[in-house]
Amino acid sequence: MHPSPAKPILVVDDDPAMRLALSESLRQSGHPVVIASNGEEALGHCREQAIGLMMTDIRMPGMSGMDLFQEAKKLMPSLPIIIMSAFGTIQAAVEAMKSGAFDYLVKPFSQEALETVIQRALCSQEIPAAKPPPHPTAPAGRALLTQDPGMLRLLKTAEVVAAGQTSILIEGESGTGKELLARFIHEQSPRAHRPFIAINCAAVPEALLESELFGYEKGAFTGAAARKPGRFELAHTGTLLLDEVSEMHLSLQAKLLRVLQEREVDLLGGKGPISLDIRVIATTNRPLWEEVNAGRFREDLYYRLNVFPLRLPPLRHRVVDIPLLADHFIKKGSAKNQKSVLSVSPEALSHLMGREWRGNIREFANVIERAVLLCDRGVITPDHLLFEASSEAKAAPPPPRSTTVWEAERELILETLERVGGNRTHAARLLGISIRTLRNKLREYRTAGSTDPQQTAAPGRADEGGTL
Fold it and tell me: By the 8 A CB rule, do 309 and 169 touch?
């Protein structure tokens, strides 16, 4: 049963044939329609009457579809607007979605694709999605832990985007936590109480990936003894994670594009398509645009997935998070292995902060778990750290030159200050001492004639601020 809005759909296109065909198709589906041949005429309709939905071509003479979109949003901020785009202007349509457009359709589009996006837009107006009750940001042991300013901004952006329905592409090196970020987005969204279904496109053999994604009916082929729903069908009303989507074969990419465009899936051997209501999140550990340029990934699928891109930084760009992550994985490893490891020594922490971490957090977690197993006195020291053979230090600590504890302490403090850009608050937190103690130590080193990188800092406490 279709919604029957009293407010008409406004169709804006400078092509008379397209205007006529689209308006006639909408009227046959039971929707009231008004038409406009340009942006100025469309704005006139918006001022004269209540509009339930606008559909506008993006490329028009005079006022473009993007300009119309901006002006219409000023007049009617809650008006859902669907952008119609030819293949060559997909990127502009994606930019419109980032600015708040409801969705976009690539010409030529089918009647089914049109009706699907119309129903979604109208239903979003009739029944606003309710925010789910408070819930944890991640399952136990899978939390996104950070105090890095850049990561905190990224999570805030992800939380805002989660409230919408747009597709999201998460890029990042292997081991940076792309699946955790995808789960965070799902759990912050109105779909949090619905299924979260993930499939690793790199882990499933190519011959099986199609049936895993799309499913099949009983008897569809030899060995199909029972009906098997695909991941798309299982994710209905929820979120589907396409992990490492860049590994998908080109032939499957074409079928994936159709599902995303039509919002329906055909089971192998099925009698008809199954309608879908899903949010798609894709991840990749390779720059997807480079894959497009290399001819290994479809450009139209790239734009359909990359409506809102998020990039996770590697661990080497989040040095301030290493003490926090070390504490987390020490507790986790201790509980798992029934050990009583309490902390990591400043010297071991210095080694951890100096690594390149090519395997990122996944590699870091392995190193800490090994250290927990080897530790027998409650504190992890450098002797307990066994690194991967392929993991090189970005700035490996120099061989000890100090002959006294005082000199070793001084080198550790000055090295830590240099790593955090001279921020005493961060340095004190990493070293596990108070800012007062750090100031006293630096004063002591100046008196002794050692070099203090803080001498160039502004007087007073200006260098002690900063974010978490």
Answer: yes
